[in-house]
Amino acid sequence: MRISKLAKVATLALAFGLVAGTPAYAVDLQGSGASFPALLIEGCKAGFAASGSHTYVYASSSSGTGQANSDKSIGDFWMSDGAYTAATKRASLIHVPLVAAPIAILHNLPSKTTLSLSASTIAGIFGGTITRWNDPAIVADNNRSTNKVVYKLDANGNPRKDSKGNPIVLRTQVVQQHYTLPNKPIKVVYRSDSSGTSENFTNFLNKSASSVWTKAKNKVFKDSFPGNINDTANLGRVVGAASSTGVSQLAGKTPYSITYAEVNYATANKLKIANVINPAGTSVVPDSVGVGAFLASATQDANGFLTYDYKTMEKGAYPLGIVSYLLADTAYPDKTKAAAVKAYATYVLSSKCSKDVGAALGFSVIDGELLKKSLAQVAKIG
User: Per-residue DSSP letters for 174-193?
Assistant: First the structure.
């Protein structure tokens, strides 16, 4: 009799322990969209699960897919590298600036010398008017004196700002550049799918070099191309590939090629990263410091949309810094799911994700006034 009672007590205790170990409110979130923030989102998955009871999976594809899935409520959250303003957007959907990083110009030149390119030169290369690596414009960009800016940094590694929100410069150094460019044709690799990366890249080209890149931004690169992308001079020399993975892999296999993608795709594909010469005449590395200096000049509206100042004269600004937005709902039918999405967004913005994981992957920390605005958007999820 006593053994039987003890067994029952043990059985009840075990059952209670199993139930207690698996909270009823655990939610497995489903996300999809832009490939730009995918490595950070994947990198923070284990930490998010360990911080609470929720988990998530993220299907990386493109901003266009994320936007389309948000229209149909496929999954629970979506990522887009550009503001989503289509007529099909649900009224309850909001934008949260969630992930910051540079778009990098990646190239496959044999030299170890750092390549520097101005906006007008980049526009000429990707627009098909600069077709050889020893073109005078590229030679001029790489045989000149430029500035190197050193900022006072905060605990997150981002530039400290003064009372007006301007980054604090510690010192500026003059750097003499010299690069002998090869007499080889340039192989251009562009994103063929609908992409927020392409939308931001073509916006930079149009706003920074409008006399060269004459068409407005577009999520589809070929629809923003200023000339005839199918011209005989471009056939076989200007080619497309889907996703950041696709363009970087193709460029990695193609000598003397150039493309645009996230910084973290360079190493895996043995590509080199070019500096961008900003309007202040500084040759800037695509890192968190340069992105932080650039985002300091951005303005944000009530929807959470950012407007970038591509003409900023901030000396150390990297003008191809962008933010990837979380698209989330303010009226989820399941409020438990809404709380889980809110927890996800808060975690990605935290230093445990954005700094501890993101720094090694080439992402930037969203902080200061922009972080306050992002968290205010997060608070609307419900």
Answer: EEE------S-B-EEEEE-S
What would the CATH number be for the domain defined by 27-100+322-378? 3.40.190.10
User: Would you say 365 and 354 are in contact if contact means Cβ atoms under 8 Å apart?
Assistant: yes
Tens digit of each residue's pLDDT (9 = 90 or more) over 19-64:
334 444 689 999 999 988 999 999 999 999 999 889 999 999 989 9
277-316 as b/e: b if 16+ CB within 10 A: bbbbebbbbbbbbbbbbbbbbbebeeebbbebbbebebbb
Domains 27-100+322-378 and 103-300 share a fold: yes
Which superfamily does CATH assign the domain made up of 103-300 to?
Answer: Periplasmic binding protein-like II (3.40.190.10)
- Which strands form 283-284's sheet, in the order they lie side by side? 116-118, 275-277, 283-284
Q: Are 347 and 358 in contact (CB under 8 A)?
A: no
In 3D space, the residue among 67, 83, 64 whose CA is nearest the CA of residue 219 turns out to be: 64
140: region left, alpha or beta (phi > 0 left; psi from -120 to 50 alpha):
alpha
Task: Compute the chain's Rg from CA coordinates.
Answer: 23
Residue 6's pLDDT is what? 37
Q: How far apart are CA 347 and CA 380, in angstroms?
A: 16
What mean pLDDT comes out for the span 201-222? Answer: 97
Q: Are 343 and 379 in contact (CB under 8 A)?
A: no
Between CA 139 and CA 41 the distance in angstroms is 39
Q: What's the rounded Cα separation, in Å, for the pair 128 and 109?
A: 18
Q: CB of 367 within 8 A of CB of 358?
A: no
**Half-sphere exposure for 350 (CA within 13 Å, toward CB):** 12
Query: What's the whole-model pTM score?
Result: 0.84
Would you list the domain boundaries of the chain? Answer: 27-100+322-378, 103-300
Element (H, E) at 232: none
> Are the C-beta atoms of residues 369 and 333 closer than 8 Å to each other?
no
Please return the burial class of 151, using the count of CB atoms within 10 Å of its CB with bins 0-12, 13-18 and 19+. Answer: buried
